[in-house]
Amino acid sequence: MAHASSDPSFVTGSLMRHVSVMSLTSSIGLMAIFAVDLIDILFISMLGQDALAAAAGYASTVMFFASAINIGLSIAAGALVSRALGSRTDDRARELAASVAVFAAIVGLLVPLVALPNLPFLLALIGAEGEIAAAAERYLWIILPTTALSGLGMTAVAVLRAYGDGNRAMYPALVGGGVNAVLDPILIFSLGLGLDGAAIATVLARLATMLTAFYPAIRRYGAFVLPSPQCVMRDFRVALQIAVPAVLATIATPVGVAIVTREMAKHGTDAVAALAVINRMTPVVFAVVLALSGSLGPIIGQNFGAGQMGRVRTAFFDGLIFVGLYVVVVSVLLFALRAQIADLFDATGGMRMLIFLFCGPLALATFFNGAIFVANASFNNLGHPSYSTWINWGRHTLGTWPLAMAGGALWGASGVLIGQAVGGVIFAGIAIWLSLRLIGDPSDRPRKVSFRHKDLRMHVVCNRGHR
After folding, report:
1. Left (φ > 0), alpha (ψ -120 to 50) or beta: where does 336 sit?
2. Is residue 464 part of a domain?
3. How many separate domains does the chain show?
4. What global pTM score does this model have?
5. How far is CA 397 from the centre of its chain?
6. Taking a C-beta distance cutoff of 8 angstroms, is the pair 318, 299 a contact?
7. Domain contains 274
8. For residue 428, is it within any domain?
9. CA distances from 66 to 110, 134, 206 (A)
């Protein structure tokens, strides 16, 4: 079967165009995922049983950690495949993609084997009890066994992005979201399955997402070879070196959210309600910012693999410029619509004031979170993924807790949000400095060449295993 050219698409042409196209297409997929999450909660809440909605919330917390592992593996797939394509070792790219897919399948089998027998303990650990815990456990028994489908789908999407195919990388999330949105009301209401119906719809959506991702990756690019044990064992260490720090970096985010929620709780229910609205609004209106790390990564990875460090540096700055322009435009829109947004959530008093604060100056501070995502893309694709871990954990602990506490003591609930934003400014500065130091370090060039030669030698050995 003839496949599309695998020539690295990001090593030539306008980098700003590449950044814009990849970020916008990635964000559409993200928005589809967030929209489906909202639809799920909406349909479950329409059952009129608060316990079921709470059970879905507790189950989502448990599922997050499985998703974090899959996200880490997908970041490893994108970084390794894009670097191999940039260095024009196409067979190596296919072997790496296959190896990471095998890791995703293995993890997808191990996670439910470990988690399912321990669900009562895990749910009790996060505060679920009684009827709510029982419903959450039943929900997880349906969804957790399909962790492998989710991991394989994420891996295939990352590989498509590594080939520079932003459009086809966007379709799996749209298809999965469509399947979920159509099946939710049928299974929940028409068939009377309730919460179980929502879980089944998610399982079928995961299957649709995976198939929609693998089909173009295999048919158009031949992006995966038939994996051999020799290849998989060879690639285990190099994939783990990226995946583990990426998983740890991902887990840092809910820790930061929990810290801010705890500090907000000291200032009353209005403050917590406002924070809940802000936390749900942010990923939707700033989806492009959240997509930056995954979308910019292949651009940096291909150019690093090709040894074009000048283009790597330009891509980094173009990423910062792009996120700056996007944040300014969205912040202006939020400011103009702040009253309507507050009215939509029936916000009054302190809740309304906090939403106005976010839709005003604090929305601009999202730029600094975006800068951290741009830096994370450089760390993960230039061979220093542990930097992402340290920056993310620093930002969500030292850059959140003391500053949110101090802000809360000085200015109340508004100060908590201000303190959190100041922490983002500090750690964005550190992340940008580290990235520029990494990109501008001449010692990275010989390391890159060594990586390529070593890969070629191992590629020959691995191919013998295929014969």
Report:
1. alpha
2. no
3. 1
4. 0.84
5. 19
6. no
7. yes
8. yes
9. 10, 20, 14
